[in-house]
Amino acid sequence: MDIRMGSRSGRKAALEGVEDRIRQELVERQPGWEAKLSSKPCILESVEREVHAVFGQLADEVVAGLLAKVTGKKEFQERAKN
To answer: What is the pTM assigned to this prediction?
Structure first.
């Protein structure tokens, strides 16, 4: 089964590369989040929402990638019929 991200015409879901995207997001965004919190500690809630939004989307990609990988296996297809 093809699992697509975002829409039927979106890219295929896959686990490959997700780890790199997680690392990349953290490397790119962490300095900004630290700077915001250092200059204005009262915005913790806002920064927390940003972190959850960024990594929540990546978590969705992990789940879609797992589903894509598992649904292609014959064992899954047999068990899904029951």
So the answer is: 0.69
